[in-house]
Amino acid sequence: MKIKSVYLLYSINILMAVLILIIVFLPNNILRIILGLPFVLFVPGYTLIAALYHRKSDLDGIQRLALSLGLSIAVVPLIGLILNYTWGITTNSILVSITVFVVVMSVIAWFNLRRFPDGEQVVITIPRFSWKERSQLEKILSIILVFVILGAIGVVVYAIAVPKTGERFTEFYVLNSEGEASDYPTKLNLSDTGNVTLGIANREQQDVSYKIETKIDGVPVSTIGPIVLKNDEKYETIATFKPQEVGNHQKVEFLLFKNESLDPYMELHIWVDVK
Fold this sequence. Notes:
Layout: E1 2-4, H1 5-25, H2 31-41, H3 43-52, H4 61-84, H5 91-113, E2 123-125, H6 136-161, E3 169-176, E4 187-188, E5 194-203, E6 208-216, E7 219-229, E8 234-241, E9 247-258, E10 266-274
């Protein structure tokens, strides 16, 4: 069975469009994995090879297959490295980056293929496989190639099934009443009420219940909570405090408690002069 390289490029881009639609509209469908594996492990390398080597005399079928797999394994991590220092590594950023790479390489390959007559263009031949007819070297290379493919697939499946848990932490911050990290209420009269904005961002990779307690010189004055946040969920609220006595350099503490713990998880404070 013989397939012209240009038709294979058309098919690759059509299947890539189908994969994008599946990821957008059917994110949990098994087709995402079935189409996603060759999209990551084969397609980027094949389109790069097609853009670089246009004539069928440049490489034979086995060489193209091996280079396509090897270059894909090299190109995809390189794209991930670039994303790590630019837009960040997410499903969407990886999908868009690999798609752009494949489309650009496909367009270059199409324009290069047009310069050669049909007889010189790459034709992908799918031969009838006969193990007995293979030489000893071909058998060894075939076995190694199978193990490489199975290993790559295993790594991808493991990464999907057992995703790496990111760092667990909570963001706790204090802003002024206008949402800026400056100009806190540091000078008050005894009859005044101070206002600040307290914020929590949950990065604990799980649902967490929080509580905020406000103290002035160690004396509790107010409590906010419980506040239940999902992972990556954010919460902001206005916290008020009213001094009980005149004095300079009074410490206003905001203590964050996590779940049922009796010990503060995090602590913030400002200093207030009261007249």
